[in-house]
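A.,

Following up on our hallway conversation. Structure tokens first:
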């Protein structure tokens, strides 16, 4: 039983990893194609999508981050202030979007913020930060806003993981142990209801933790 459950879990993890890597690779190749075609804004969006397909150990996020910084440099050299800022914001938001119990890509976020601060403070068209403030005060206000992140609550993140495992594990055991493999054998309804209740409880825990995390 434990062996089958472990194999099932390993298979599910393999499917998820393959799906994430595949989607990230498609987004990265799409971004590179847009760059070759001179479609820089579309390339920045695709690079951001590639970052959001994060998987520990995968080089996709690094390649996409390097691509966004290169696009930001190009936009700055071309005098395209809005595009320059968009690339940096896409880099920062892409990595922030994949945080869970830890924050991956912290160095990329720091680099994006390092370039965003002067870009935001030096934008003479912007009404925020208040143009009446001194440059130092405007910079301090921007830094404070960039530093204020609503990081997930670790306890609820762990509860979400537990709920997810109970949800899938309970449903799997209800099927494997409660429903007979051969015709003519009786359905073990007590087992089905027991593990079904575990699955339902896990699903409710997952929903609660998802809302609170």
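Then the amino acids I'd put at each of the 213 positions:
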């Amino acid at each position: 039983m434990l062996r089958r459950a472990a194999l099932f879990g390993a298979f599910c993890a393999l499917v998820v990893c393959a799906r994430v890597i595949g989607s990230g690779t498609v987004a990265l190749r799409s971004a590179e194609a847009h760059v070759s075609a001179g479609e820089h804004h579309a390339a920045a969006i695709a690079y951001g999508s590639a970052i959001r397909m994060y998987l520990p150990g995968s080089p996709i996020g690094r390649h996409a981050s390097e691509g966004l910084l290169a696009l930001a440099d190009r936009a700055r050299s071309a005098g395209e202030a809005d595009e320059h800022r968009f690339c940096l914001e896409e880099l920062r938001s892409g990595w922030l979007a994949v945080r869970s119990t830890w924050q991956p890509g912290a160095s990329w976020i720091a680099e994006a913020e390092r370039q965003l601060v002067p870009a935001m403070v030096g934008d003479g068209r912007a009404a925020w930060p208040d143009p009446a403030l001194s440059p130092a005060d405007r910079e301090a206000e921007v830094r404070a806003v960039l530093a204020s992140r609503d990081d997930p609550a670790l306890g609820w993140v762990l509860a979400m993981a537990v709920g997810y495992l109970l949800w899938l594990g309970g449903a799997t055991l209800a099927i494997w142990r409660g429903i007979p493999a051969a015709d003519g054998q009786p359905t073990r309804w007590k087992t089905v209801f027991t593990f079904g209740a575990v699955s339902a409880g896990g699903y409710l825990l997952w929903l609660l933790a998802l809302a609170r995390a």
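The radius of gyration is 24 Å. Curious whether your intuition agrees with the design.

B.
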